[in-house]
Amino acid sequence: MLQRELLYAAIGTGCTCLATVLGAAMVFFFKKEMSALTQRVFLGFAAGVMIAASVWSLLIPAMEMAEKAGGSVFLPAGGGFVLGGVFLMLLDRLLPHLHLDSDRPEGLPAQWKRTTMIVLAVTLHNIPEGMAVALSFTVAAQDGGALAGAVALAIGMGLQNFPEGAAVSLPMRSQGVPVWKAFWCGAASGVVEPVFGLLTVLAAGSVTGLMPWILSFAAGAMIYVVVEELIPEAHLGEHSHAGTASVMAGFLVMMLLDVALG
User: Fold this and answer.
1) Which of 30, 118, 128, 172 makes an SS bond possible with 221, Cβ 3.0 to 4.6 Å?
2) Which residues contact 116 (CB under 8 A, 6 or more apart)?
3) Three-class secondary structure of residue 7 per DSSP
4) Is the pLDDT confidence value at 114 over 80?
5) Which stretches of 25-113 are DSSP H helices?
6) What per-residue confidence (pLDDT) applies to 36?
7) Pick from 187, 134, 151: which is nearest to 21 by CA?
8) Closest CA to 59 of 145, 153, 124, 147
C-alpha cells in the first residue's frame, strides 16, 4: 500500500513541480521582469488558493479522519495546525534566504550567492504546498473517491506555481543573470515539492493515526506562508484593490475546484 501511496504522491507533486518549471521557462520568451501590478495579482491569487486549500483540502479532511477514528477532532486539527506554523517560523528564522524585493537577507548569516538565497526564499513557499498535494494524493490512494479532490488541489497549486516560477527567473534575467541559469534557478525552486511531499508521506505512513495531524500541519504551514510572506509581498496593506481582488479570485477558484471535483 505504501508503494501505491508514494506513486500517487510522486505523480501529484511532479505535476505541480512541472508547473513551476514551465513558469520558469518564460525567461526564454520574455526579457523584462513582471510589473509590480502583475506580481501583486499573482501573489494575491496564490494567497487565495492556499487559504482555500488549507480549509477544504486539509483541515476539513483532517477533522473527518479524526472523527472516523473515534478520537478527538480538535486536538489533531488544532495541534497540527499550530505545529505547522511553528515549523515554518523556525525555517524562516534559520534558513538564509532573500526575497526579490529586498536587499537584506533573512535567517542565519551566510556567505551565499544572491541567486541561491532568492531560490531558497521561494523554496520556503513550496514546502507546505508539496506536503499538501502529496498528502491529498496519499488519501486518494487509500480511498479512490478522494482522487477528484486531490486533482483539484493539484490544479489549484499548479495555477499559482506557474507565475511563481516566472517570478524567480524573469527578475534574475533582467538583473543580468544568464538565461539558462535564471531558468534553472526558477525550476529548482519547485523541486522541493516532490522531495518534501514524499518525505511527508513516509512519515505519515510510519505511524498509524498520524494522517490527521500531518494534514493540519500542512495547513498551518501554508497559512503561515500566506500571512508572513505572500500578503506583505503583494502589498495588500496599501489599499490595493487589485491585490485584494486577486486573493478573493484565488480563494474562489480553489473552492470551486474542490467542490466541483471533490
Assistant:
1) 128
2) none
3) helix
4) no
5) 36-52, 60-68, 74-94
6) 74
7) 187
8) 153
- Residue 101 confidence (pLDDT): 65
- Find out whether 221 and 84 touch, Cβ atoms under 8 Å: yes
What would the pLDDT profile of 137-165 be if each residue is shown by its tens digit? 988 888 776 788 888 889 988 988 888 88
Partner residues linked to 97 by β-bridges: 106
Q: Residue 177 corresponds to which amino acid?
A: V
**Which grid cell is 205?**
505512513
Q: Mark 210-221 as b/e (b = at least 16 C-beta within 10 Å).
A: ebbbbbbbbbbb
pLDDT tens digits, one per residue of 176-207:
788 988 898 889 888 989 999 999 888 776 65
**Please, where are the H alpha helices in the chain?**
2-24, 36-52, 60-68, 74-94, 114-142, 147-174, 179-206, 211-225, 231-233, 241-261
Would you say residue 237 has pLDDT above 90?
no
Write the CB contacts of 103 (distance below 8 Å, at least 6 apart in sequence).
none
- Per the listing, cell 501583486 goes with 40
Domain ranges of the chain: 2-26+36-261
